[in-house]
Predict the structure of tRNA (uracil-O(2)-)-methyltransferase.
Amino acid sequence: RSSYSCCYFVLPCCFFDFHGKYSRRQSKKTQYREYLDFVAQVGLVCGFHVEEDCLRIPSTKRVSFVGKSRSYAAAERALIDQQITRFINSRRACAVATCDTGAGFHQEDHCGALCKEAGSEPPEDETETAGTMWMPGFQPREKVEQIRNCVSLPRDFVDEVVLNVANLLLNAAPQKSCSDKQGGNINTWNRGESLSLREVAEHLNKETLKKLKSEYGGLQTLLKNNHQVFEVLNGRVHIRDWRKEKPPSKTKPEVKRRLSAEAFKTRLCWFFIHHPDGCSLPSEACPYAHGTEELR
Protein backbone atom coordinates (compact mmCIF):
# COMPACT_ATOMS: atom_id res chain seq x y z
CA ARG A 1 0.00 0.00 0.00
CA SER A 2 3.04 2.32 0.03
CA SER A 3 2.69 3.21 -3.66
CA TYR A 4 1.75 1.69 -7.02
CA SER A 5 5.43 1.62 -8.04
CA CYS A 6 6.45 -0.29 -4.88
CA CYS A 7 8.22 -3.66 -5.30
CA TYR A 8 9.04 -6.10 -2.52
CA PHE A 9 11.24 -8.99 -1.42
CA VAL A 10 10.39 -11.03 1.69
CA LEU A 11 12.10 -13.98 3.37
CA PRO A 12 9.47 -15.50 5.71
CA CYS A 13 10.83 -16.81 8.98
CA CYS A 14 8.78 -16.54 12.19
CA PHE A 15 5.11 -17.53 11.96
CA PHE A 16 3.19 -14.28 12.52
CA ASP A 17 -0.07 -12.91 11.17
CA PHE A 18 -1.13 -9.23 11.17
CA HIS A 19 -2.37 -9.39 14.77
CA GLY A 20 -0.26 -12.03 16.47
CA LYS A 21 1.06 -15.56 15.98
CA TYR A 22 -0.09 -17.39 12.88
CA SER A 23 -2.63 -20.16 13.58
CA ARG A 24 -2.46 -23.34 11.50
CA ARG A 25 -5.54 -24.31 9.52
CA GLN A 26 -4.42 -27.18 7.27
CA SER A 27 -2.98 -30.30 8.87
CA LYS A 28 -2.10 -31.79 5.45
CA LYS A 29 0.74 -29.28 5.00
CA THR A 30 3.79 -28.60 7.11
CA GLN A 31 3.61 -25.47 9.23
CA TYR A 32 6.35 -23.86 7.13
CA ARG A 33 4.66 -24.60 3.79
CA GLU A 34 1.30 -23.41 5.06
CA TYR A 35 2.84 -20.16 6.26
CA LEU A 36 4.63 -19.67 2.95
CA ASP A 37 1.31 -20.05 1.14
CA PHE A 38 -0.21 -17.43 3.46
CA VAL A 39 2.59 -14.94 2.73
CA ALA A 40 2.19 -15.57 -1.00
CA GLN A 41 -1.57 -15.01 -0.63
CA VAL A 42 -0.92 -11.60 0.96
CA GLY A 43 1.09 -10.62 -2.12
CA LEU A 44 -1.65 -11.81 -4.46
CA VAL A 45 -4.36 -9.93 -2.55
CA CYS A 46 -2.22 -6.80 -2.75
CA GLY A 47 -2.23 -7.16 -6.55
CA PHE A 48 1.28 -8.47 -7.23
CA HIS A 49 2.57 -11.11 -9.59
CA VAL A 50 4.22 -13.18 -6.83
CA GLU A 51 7.39 -15.11 -7.69
CA GLU A 52 8.90 -17.74 -5.39
CA ASP A 53 12.62 -18.43 -5.14
CA CYS A 54 14.91 -20.55 -2.96
CA LEU A 55 18.00 -18.74 -1.70
CA ARG A 56 21.41 -20.35 -1.49
CA ILE A 57 21.97 -19.60 2.19
CA PRO A 58 22.81 -21.90 5.14
CA SER A 59 19.33 -21.87 6.63
CA THR A 60 16.36 -24.22 6.81
CA LYS A 61 14.07 -21.28 5.99
CA ARG A 62 15.32 -20.01 2.66
CA VAL A 63 12.20 -19.73 0.49
CA SER A 64 11.61 -16.12 -0.52
CA PHE A 65 8.95 -14.21 -2.45
CA VAL A 66 9.46 -11.35 -4.89
CA GLY A 67 6.84 -8.92 -6.15
CA LYS A 68 8.25 -6.99 -9.11
CA SER A 69 5.09 -6.10 -11.01
CA ARG A 70 1.39 -5.46 -10.40
CA SER A 71 -1.48 -7.53 -11.73
CA TYR A 72 -3.79 -4.52 -12.18
CA ALA A 73 -3.71 -1.11 -13.80
CA ALA A 74 -2.95 2.01 -11.79
CA ALA A 75 -6.51 3.26 -12.34
CA GLU A 76 -7.85 0.26 -10.35
CA ARG A 77 -5.84 1.09 -7.25
CA ALA A 78 -8.88 2.23 -5.22
CA LEU A 79 -10.64 -1.10 -5.81
CA ILE A 80 -7.55 -3.08 -4.79
CA ASP A 81 -7.25 -0.90 -1.69
CA GLN A 82 -10.77 -1.91 -0.68
CA GLN A 83 -9.83 -5.56 -1.31
CA ILE A 84 -6.78 -5.20 0.93
CA THR A 85 -8.88 -3.62 3.69
CA ARG A 86 -11.38 -6.50 3.60
CA PHE A 87 -8.54 -9.01 3.70
CA ILE A 88 -6.98 -7.35 6.76
CA ASN A 89 -10.33 -7.25 8.54
CA SER A 90 -10.96 -10.91 7.70
CA ARG A 91 -7.59 -11.84 9.24
CA ARG A 92 -8.51 -9.89 12.36
CA ALA A 93 -11.79 -11.82 12.59
CA CYS A 94 -9.81 -15.06 12.25
CA ALA A 95 -7.56 -14.00 15.14
CA VAL A 96 -10.60 -13.26 17.32
CA ALA A 97 -12.20 -16.59 16.40
CA THR A 98 -9.01 -18.43 17.37
CA CYS A 99 -9.01 -16.84 20.83
CA ASP A 100 -12.76 -17.49 21.36
CA THR A 101 -12.74 -21.04 22.72
CA GLY A 102 -16.50 -21.02 23.18
CA ALA A 103 -17.35 -20.01 19.63
CA GLY A 104 -19.08 -23.30 18.84
CA PHE A 105 -17.99 -23.52 15.18
CA HIS A 106 -15.20 -25.13 13.19
CA GLN A 107 -12.32 -22.67 13.08
CA GLU A 108 -10.96 -23.80 9.70
CA ASP A 109 -14.32 -23.47 7.93
CA HIS A 110 -15.07 -20.12 9.54
CA CYS A 111 -11.69 -18.54 8.75
CA GLY A 112 -11.73 -19.95 5.24
CA ALA A 113 -15.12 -18.36 4.61
CA LEU A 114 -13.93 -15.03 5.99
CA CYS A 115 -10.85 -15.00 3.80
CA LYS A 116 -12.96 -15.75 0.72
CA GLU A 117 -14.96 -12.64 1.50
CA ALA A 118 -11.90 -10.59 0.58
CA GLY A 119 -13.15 -10.59 -3.00
CA SER A 120 -16.76 -9.63 -2.21
CA GLU A 121 -18.35 -6.25 -1.48
CA PRO A 122 -17.26 -4.72 1.85
CA PRO A 123 -19.77 -4.45 4.68
CA GLU A 124 -20.98 -0.94 5.47
CA ASP A 125 -18.75 -0.54 8.54
CA GLU A 126 -15.66 -1.40 6.50
CA THR A 127 -16.14 1.01 3.61
CA GLU A 128 -15.12 3.89 5.87
CA THR A 129 -11.69 2.35 6.48
CA ALA A 130 -11.13 1.36 2.85
CA GLY A 131 -9.14 4.52 2.18
CA THR A 132 -7.03 4.18 5.33
CA MET A 133 -3.36 3.62 4.57
CA TRP A 134 -2.77 1.06 7.31
CA MET A 135 -4.90 -1.00 9.65
CA PRO A 136 -6.46 0.80 12.66
CA GLY A 137 -4.04 0.98 15.59
CA PHE A 138 -1.01 0.06 13.47
CA GLN A 139 2.18 1.53 14.95
CA PRO A 140 5.23 1.34 12.66
CA ARG A 141 8.75 0.94 14.01
CA GLU A 142 10.65 4.17 14.63
CA LYS A 143 12.83 5.29 11.72
CA VAL A 144 15.83 5.53 14.04
CA GLU A 145 16.06 2.37 16.15
CA GLN A 146 17.22 3.00 19.70
CA ILE A 147 20.48 1.23 20.56
CA ARG A 148 20.07 -0.54 23.88
CA ASN A 149 23.03 -2.92 24.14
CA CYS A 150 24.93 -0.79 26.69
CA VAL A 151 27.28 0.73 24.08
CA SER A 152 25.50 4.10 24.19
CA LEU A 153 25.76 4.44 27.97
CA PRO A 154 27.95 7.32 29.22
CA ARG A 155 31.62 6.32 29.36
CA ASP A 156 32.01 7.60 32.92
CA PHE A 157 29.09 5.45 34.07
CA VAL A 158 30.49 2.32 32.40
CA ASP A 159 33.98 2.92 33.81
CA GLU A 160 32.54 3.33 37.31
CA VAL A 161 30.56 0.05 37.09
CA VAL A 162 33.58 -1.82 35.72
CA LEU A 163 35.81 -0.54 38.52
CA ASN A 164 33.23 -1.35 41.21
CA VAL A 165 32.67 -4.90 39.96
CA ALA A 166 36.40 -5.53 39.53
CA ASN A 167 37.15 -4.33 43.07
CA LEU A 168 34.34 -6.53 44.36
CA LEU A 169 35.90 -9.62 42.73
CA LEU A 170 39.42 -8.70 43.81
CA ASN A 171 38.47 -8.04 47.44
CA ALA A 172 36.53 -11.31 47.60
CA ALA A 173 39.76 -13.28 47.11
CA PRO A 174 41.54 -14.40 50.28
CA GLN A 175 44.65 -12.30 50.95
CA LYS A 176 47.95 -14.15 50.64
CA SER A 177 50.25 -14.13 53.67
CA CYS A 178 53.64 -12.47 53.59
CA SER A 179 55.38 -15.85 53.58
CA ASP A 180 53.36 -16.88 50.56
CA LYS A 181 54.27 -13.68 48.74
CA GLN A 182 57.97 -14.22 49.45
CA GLY A 183 57.93 -17.79 48.14
CA GLY A 184 59.47 -18.08 44.72
CA ASN A 185 56.95 -20.59 43.35
CA ILE A 186 53.83 -18.78 44.53
CA ASN A 187 52.00 -16.62 42.03
CA THR A 188 51.05 -13.41 43.81
CA TRP A 189 49.00 -11.80 41.01
CA ASN A 190 45.49 -11.46 42.42
CA ARG A 191 43.04 -13.15 40.04
CA GLY A 192 40.11 -12.46 42.33
CA GLU A 193 37.14 -14.73 43.00
CA SER A 194 34.20 -15.55 40.78
CA LEU A 195 30.72 -14.37 41.75
CA SER A 196 27.31 -15.00 40.23
CA LEU A 197 25.60 -12.18 38.35
CA ARG A 198 23.02 -12.02 41.14
CA GLU A 199 25.72 -11.60 43.82
CA VAL A 200 27.35 -8.83 41.79
CA ALA A 201 24.00 -7.09 41.26
CA GLU A 202 23.29 -7.16 45.00
CA HIS A 203 26.35 -5.00 45.60
CA LEU A 204 25.37 -2.30 43.09
CA ASN A 205 23.23 0.66 44.10
CA LYS A 206 19.61 1.00 42.98
CA GLU A 207 20.27 3.87 40.56
CA THR A 208 22.90 1.84 38.71
CA LEU A 209 20.65 -1.22 38.46
CA LYS A 210 17.74 0.92 37.26
CA LYS A 211 19.89 2.33 34.48
CA LEU A 212 21.13 -1.12 33.45
CA LYS A 213 17.63 -2.63 33.40
CA SER A 214 16.66 -0.26 30.59
CA GLU A 215 19.30 -1.94 28.41
CA TYR A 216 19.01 -5.33 26.70
CA GLY A 217 20.85 -7.91 28.81
CA GLY A 218 21.55 -5.35 31.54
CA LEU A 219 24.56 -6.04 33.75
CA GLN A 220 25.62 -9.16 31.85
CA THR A 221 25.79 -7.28 28.54
CA LEU A 222 27.84 -4.47 30.05
CA LEU A 223 30.35 -6.92 31.55
CA LYS A 224 30.63 -8.89 28.31
CA ASN A 225 31.21 -5.66 26.39
CA ASN A 226 34.22 -5.08 28.68
CA HIS A 227 35.87 -8.36 27.78
CA GLN A 228 39.34 -6.90 28.42
CA VAL A 229 38.56 -7.01 32.16
CA PHE A 230 35.86 -9.67 32.62
CA GLU A 231 34.94 -13.15 31.55
CA VAL A 232 31.30 -14.23 32.02
CA LEU A 233 30.81 -18.02 31.98
CA ASN A 234 27.66 -19.92 32.96
CA GLY A 235 26.25 -16.95 34.83
CA ARG A 236 29.42 -16.29 36.83
CA VAL A 237 31.75 -13.32 36.53
CA HIS A 238 35.55 -13.76 36.57
CA ILE A 239 38.51 -11.40 36.26
CA ARG A 240 40.10 -12.22 32.90
CA ASP A 241 43.61 -13.66 33.22
CA TRP A 242 45.38 -12.83 29.96
CA ARG A 243 48.11 -15.38 30.70
CA LYS A 244 45.54 -18.10 30.00
CA GLU A 245 44.49 -16.69 26.64
CA LYS A 246 45.49 -18.84 23.66
CA PRO A 247 48.63 -17.53 21.94
CA PRO A 248 48.37 -16.65 18.23
CA SER A 249 48.46 -19.67 15.97
CA LYS A 250 51.94 -20.53 14.69
CA THR A 251 50.43 -21.93 11.51
CA LYS A 252 49.48 -18.44 10.27
CA PRO A 253 51.11 -17.28 7.03
CA GLU A 254 54.26 -15.23 7.48
CA VAL A 255 52.55 -11.99 6.40
CA LYS A 256 49.76 -12.37 8.99
CA ARG A 257 52.25 -13.25 11.75
CA ARG A 258 54.26 -10.12 10.94
CA LEU A 259 51.14 -7.92 10.92
CA SER A 260 50.03 -9.42 14.24
CA ALA A 261 53.43 -8.71 15.82
CA GLU A 262 53.39 -5.12 14.55
CA ALA A 263 49.77 -4.47 15.59
CA PHE A 264 49.19 -0.99 16.95
CA LYS A 265 48.01 -0.61 20.54
CA THR A 266 45.03 1.73 20.47
CA ARG A 267 43.68 1.25 24.02
CA LEU A 268 45.21 1.51 27.47
CA CYS A 269 45.55 -1.64 29.56
CA TRP A 270 42.95 -1.56 32.34
CA PHE A 271 45.02 -3.84 34.57
CA PHE A 272 48.16 -1.69 34.20
CA ILE A 273 46.18 1.32 35.47
CA HIS A 274 43.73 -0.14 38.01
CA HIS A 275 44.82 -3.60 39.19
CA PRO A 276 46.73 -3.50 42.52
CA ASP A 277 49.33 -5.92 41.10
CA GLY A 278 49.45 -4.29 37.67
CA CYS A 279 49.13 -6.29 34.46
CA SER A 280 49.85 -10.02 34.54
CA LEU A 281 51.69 -9.75 31.21
CA PRO A 282 54.85 -7.86 30.32
CA SER A 283 54.36 -4.86 28.05
CA GLU A 284 55.63 -6.60 24.92
CA ALA A 285 53.16 -9.49 25.38
CA CYS A 286 50.09 -7.44 26.34
CA PRO A 287 47.72 -6.46 23.50
CA TYR A 288 46.99 -3.18 25.32
CA ALA A 289 49.20 -0.17 25.99
CA HIS A 290 51.12 0.06 29.27
CA GLY A 291 51.09 3.84 29.37
CA THR A 292 50.16 6.56 26.89
CA GLU A 293 53.61 6.43 25.27
CA GLU A 294 52.69 3.03 23.75
CA LEU A 295 49.48 4.27 22.16
CA ARG A 296 49.68 4.56 18.36
Observations:
- The chain has three domains: 8-94, 149-171+191-240, 246-295.
